[in-house]
Design a protein that fits this description.
α8 packs across α9 and α8 runs parallel beside α11. By secondary structure, the chain is α+β, with helices and mostly antiparallel strands. The protein contains eleven helices and six strands. A six-stranded mixed sheet has the order 5-4-3-2-1-6, sandwiched between helices.
C-alpha cells in the first residue's frame, strides 16, 4: 500500500473510532486499494465503515465534518466513504442501505448524503450493492473482523440486475462525438470488462486486471489493450468505439 495512503487510513480509522466509539464494528478499504491497483494521482481511496446500529443524524453529520478533506486531508484524488450498519452489510441486499456517504478531496466533487432517499436517482443506486459484493470478496480490513464475515454477497439475479443497471448508466452519460480519443472512455470499457469477468469467472478484479483477462479470452483484444495502456498514460479510444463495446457486453449480459 502507498505509504501516504497507509498513514491516511490509520488516521481515518482513529477519527471514526473517536466519533463512533463502541458502535464501530470495522473499517475496510475497497476499490483500488483493496484490489492492489492504486495509482497515485489517479485513484480514489474507497472506505466502508460498519457500525452496530443505525446512527443518529447528528453522529452521521459529525463523521462527515471530521472526515472531510478540509479536516483530514486525503493524499489521493479524493475519499469515497460509505457507512453501513452491520445488519445491512450482512444482508446481501441490492438496495443502497447506507447510513452516510461522503465524497471529498482536492480533485473530487463534494457529496455528503445522510440518507439514501436524499441521493438523486440519476446518480445511480447500483453502486452500493456492487461495492459490498467487492468488499465481501476482496475487502481489506483496516480494523475489525475479516470483510468476508461482515459483508454478504449478492444473489446471482441481483448481481446481474445491478451490473445491467451500471452498464446502462455508463451508456447514458454524455459522450463527445467523432473518432477523437475521449478521456474516460478507457474506464467505461474496462468497467464492462469487470462485469464480464465477474459473471463468467466469479472474480472481482481491478479494471486493468479484468481487461487483461478479457484480452486473453480474445474479446476485442486491440481495443481492450488500448484501454489498459491508457490507464498508464496512453491515448484512450473514442467514445463511439467504447460505447459499441459496452453495448455488446450489455446485450450479452441481458441475454444471460
Amino acid at each position: 500500500m502507498d505509504t501516504a495512503v497507509r498513514r491516511y487510513l490509520a488516521d481515518l480509522v482513529a477519527t471514526a473510532r473517536d466519533v463512533l466509539g463502541p458502535q464501530l464494528v470495522g473499517g475496510y478499504a475497497a476499490g483500488s486499494v483493496a484490489l492492489d491497483a492504486y495509482q497515485p494521482g489517479r485513484s480514489d481511496v474507497d472506505v466502508a465503515l460498519v457500525c452496530r446500529d443505525t446512527l443518529p443524524r447528528r453522529t452521521r453529520q459529525e463523521l462527515v465534518t471530521r472526515l472531510r478533506h478540509e479536516a483530514l486531508p486525503c493524499p489521493a484524488r479524493g475519499l469515497e466513504l460509505v457507512v453501513y450498519t452491520r445488519p445491512v452489510a450482512g444482508s446481501g441486499t441490492p438496495e443502497p442501505g447506507f447510513e452516510a456517504e461522503l465524497n471529498t478531496g482536492a480533485a473530487m466533487p463534494w457529496r455528503a448524503t445522510l440518507d439514501p432517499a436524499e441521493r438523486p436517482a440519476a446518480d445511480g443506486r447500483f453502486w452500493y450493492g456492487l461495492d459490498r459484493s467487492i468488499l465481501h470478496q476482496r475487502g481489506r480490513p483496516l480494523t475489525g473482523p475479516p470483510a468476508g464475515e461482515v459483508f454478504a454477497d449478492l444473489s446471482p439475479d441481483d448481481l446481474r440486475t445491478l451490473l445491467v443497471a451500471a452498464l446502462r448508466w455508463w451508456l447514458a452519460r454524455p459522450a463527445p462525438p467523432g473518432n477523437a480519443p475521449a478521456p474516460g472512455a478507457e474506464d467505461a470499457v474496462l468497467n464492462a470488462c469487470r462485469a464480464l469477468v465477474r459473471l463468467r469467472d466469479g472474480d472481482w478484479l481491478s479494471k486493468v486486471d479484468a481487461g487483461r483477462r478479457v484480452i486473453i479470452l480474445g474479446r476485442d483484444p486491440e481495443l481492450v489493450r488500448r484501454c489498459v495502456d491508457a490507464r498508464a498514460g496512453g491515448p484512450p479510444p473514442s467514445a463511439a468505439v467504447a460505447r459499441a463495446f459496452q453495448q455488446r457486453v450489455l446485450d450479452e449480459i441481458t441475454a444471460g
